[in-house]
Every structure is written in structure tokens, then in C-alpha cells.
Amino acid sequence: MTKRRVYLGTNTKMYKSIAQTCSFLKELSELTAGLSREHLELFVIPSYTALEAARKAAPPSIIKLGAQNMAWLDEGPLTGEISPLMLREVGVEIVEIGHSERRHIFREDLETIRKKVLCAARHGFTVLLCVGETTEEKEAGCMDDALRIQLKSALHGLSPEYLSRLWVAYEPVWAIGENGTPASREYAEARHKALRETLCQLFGQGAAEVVPLLYGGSVNSENAVGLIGMDHIDGLFIGRSAWDARRFSAIIRDVLDSVYR
Ligand code: 13P
Fold this sequence. Notes:
The chain has eleven helices and eight strands. The protein has helices at about 20-30, 50-55, 85-90, 100-105, 110-120, 135-140, 145-155, 185-205, 205-210, 225-230, 245-260, and strands at about 5-10, 40-45, 65, 95, 125-130, 165-170, 215, 235-240. It has an eight-stranded parallel β-barrel with strand order 1-2-3-4-5-6-7-8, surrounded by five helices. Helix 10 (about 225-230) links the parallel strand 7 and strand 8 (about 235-240). Helix 1 (about 20-30) packs parallel to helix 2. The longest helix is centred in the C-terminal third of the chain and has 19 residues, at about 185-205. It is globular and about 45 Å long. The structure holds 1,3-dihydroxyacetonephosphate (13P). 1,3-dihydroxyacetonephosphate binds next to strand 8.
């Protein structure tokens, strides 16, 4: 099954200063300038403080820009949060919601994530919703149940008109970061299939098929091509292995060559 498009992006988490983000973006733009965007959606999600400068460092036609989180209100007494209006002001296009680090370290619950998803969608952002099971859920064999709950809860009340701007990242908690082990491509494919089936249940087959499903969690230059070769994996959401522009652009080229050769 040939993919219409491949989604490749990185979340730089709480790494990279404004200057480091801009030089990363400039290098990445240059290294990928020759690659047609017809089949490639390339995105970077830096820290809030770098967003404004980042927008100037790389045009949206080359690299889409995202925020790592967003509040569910336009304004209000929410110390430490960031408003959709503030993100609009700096030219953000994507809002990431429900990353495992938000769910587990900052205790964001299902209802908070749902409110954020609905608000981001209403504001016209592309919503990058992250879901993933814990080690315990995997060991108990209820990983697909956990994913269904996270997905159904986050999308409850979402009008189908917003589906064309919804991306879902499957990021198993046990696969993320220094101590993570990447999911095998077969395991990731099975979870993506469960997510696709859940989307079909919620919105119908045609509508659900437009939603790209990305895999994240210790993606690297060794496993990227294998993962993208799976039918239900439309993209890769990469942390550490993408933070060096040369290394990231080598992964991008390998992935595109493998899919569209
Ligand atoms: P790593 O690729 O470093 O495991 O991080 C994945 C991630 O959290 C992307 O959001």
C-alpha cells in the first residue's frame, strides 16, 4: 500500500535554547530543501520561548511548527499555561496534546486532555494527540483497551469536521526516552491497527482513514525504515535521534527512499 504522505517530526522537549532551535531549523531546512513536500510533512515542536524566532528561521512550507501543550481557555487564571491565542500570535500550526510526560509527570487526566483537544481543534490548529500504554498495561495484555480509552475520551464531543486536522501519535510509555526500548514494528503495527479501528468506530471508515497515525518511542536510524514500512504507520514522531539536523535529515531521506523509491 503506497502512502500518500509521510509525517516526520520531532519534539525537542525541554532542550535547545532559542539560538540552538534556530540553528537546528536553519540546518534542517537547508538539508531537506531539495525534498519535495508533496509526500513529506515535516514538523518541529520546540520550547515556547523559541517559537517566535523559530517561525522566522524556517518557512511553514518547509517545516511546520508546533507547541508542546496548550490550555483549554483563551484566557484565564491558569498560571504556567499557554493560551491558544498566544500560540496563534507566534504562528504555530500544530498543538501537541497528551504527551506521555504531560500525562505521567504532570498528571494530566483524560478530562483535561479532552478539553485541550476540543479547544485546539476549535481554534483551527492541527491537533497532535499522543496516546500510549504503560508497562503495566502492556504486561497485563490490556494495551489496546488503554489506547481505546485514551482515544475515545480525548475525542469525545469532537465534531467530524475537525478530523482533517487531527494527527494521532502512538507512543508507548515504556518506549520513550533514554531508558526506553523501541517497540518492534509488528507490535507497533498491531497497536496502530487498533487505533485505526477505534477511529472507524467513532467516525466511520472514510473519515477515520484521513487521520495520520504516527509512531514514537526510541525511533532511530536503525528502526525508522522498518516502522514506516508497516501499513498502518503513516509517520514517525522522534525525540533524541532527531535533535541533530544531519542525523534527522539522514533518517528523513532513508524513510522517503524506502517508501517512494
Ligand atoms: P525518544 O525518541 O527520545 O524516545 O522520544 C520520543 C518522544 O517522546 C517524542 O515525543
